[in-house]
Amino acid sequence: MNISREEAERSLQTIREVRAQIRTSIASGSVPFHMILWGVIWFFGYLCNHFLDVETGGRIWIVLAIGGSMASGIMGYRLGSRFRLPNSGRIWQIWVYFFLYVFLWIWVAWPLDAKQISLLIALYVMFAYVLLGLWLEPIITRVGLAVSVLGLIGYWLLPDIFYLWMAILGGGTLFGSGIYILKKWK
Amino acid sequence: MSMLNEIIHQPVRMRIMAALVALNPDGQLEFTHLRDVLSLTDGNLGAHLRKLEDAGYVALEKTFVARKPRTFVAATKKGRQAFDEHVEALEQIISGAEIEGERSA
To answer: Which among A11, A26, A83 is the nearest to B90, CB-wise?
Structure first.
């Protein structure tokens, strides 16, 4: 079997493209869908914090967090079932330990006011995005850093509109990045 | 010197093998996901998978996930080896052509 150099080059290029496509589809998994979901949750949650009293806002956040976690779990299960990879269970373990430590850190740092809790949780989640991005895709790291900086700016410089700031910029960045990744990786 | 593999060199089968070899050993891809990633039809993908399976290059596993039938596909050890040799042969053609070009220059 003989082929020309050009055909060999084209074949290798095709192989490289398919490999990259598969790796991206594994790496991306359900990440953009989680970003869109949590972007919407952040938007409504922080919006409630801004317009409603602390207690009602807190209750709504609990409902949103439980609903969002369940939706995330279902989404992760459905989209993750496209592959069977050795050791894929470790990713779940990482998230379980991460949230356990978030709870412990907040418990140790208690008492905190509502704004501090909001900022801390946002920073912890974005810290996870930064690490995840280093492992998977740089865009996830950039989103994590951008939302962290926005959160800190809002907390220190704009305390009166902190929740509104987080709703529009934090939620919006997550939502927009999810859409962007979905289109880019398609 | 590695030889080109006629079964793998067919464009669709080469893309299938490239996708499966991109996974870690023991990794499996779901049939419908493979179909979507490679933009193939069920029939087309199925026919080429049969050919690769007959050669012992891929293994198919039919199972149930959440009560729905699913087929998972994986490259076998023999398939990975054949694919690596095919890629090596392609690289040798390119490097050989470069040497030829240098000689004639």
So the answer is: A11
- Tell whether the model's pLDDT for residue A100 goes beyond 70: yes
Domain that holds residue A154: 29-185
Q: Is the pLDDT of residue B17 over 60?
A: yes
What distance in Å separates residue B19's CA from the closest CA in chain A? 6
Q: How many domains does chain B have?
A: 1
User: Does the pTM of the predicted model rise above 0.80?
Assistant: no
What is the predicted ipTM? 0.87
Domain count, chain A: 1
pLDDT tens string A64-92: 989 998 898 888 777 666 777 655 566 66
Dihedral pair phi/psi, residue A158, rounded to 5°? -130, 55
| SS3 category, A88 | coil
CA distances from B45 to A45, A175, B7, B11, B56 (A): 45, 35, 14, 12, 16
In a domain, A23, yes or no: no
Contact B18 A19 (CB under 8 A): yes
pLDDT at B101 over 70: no
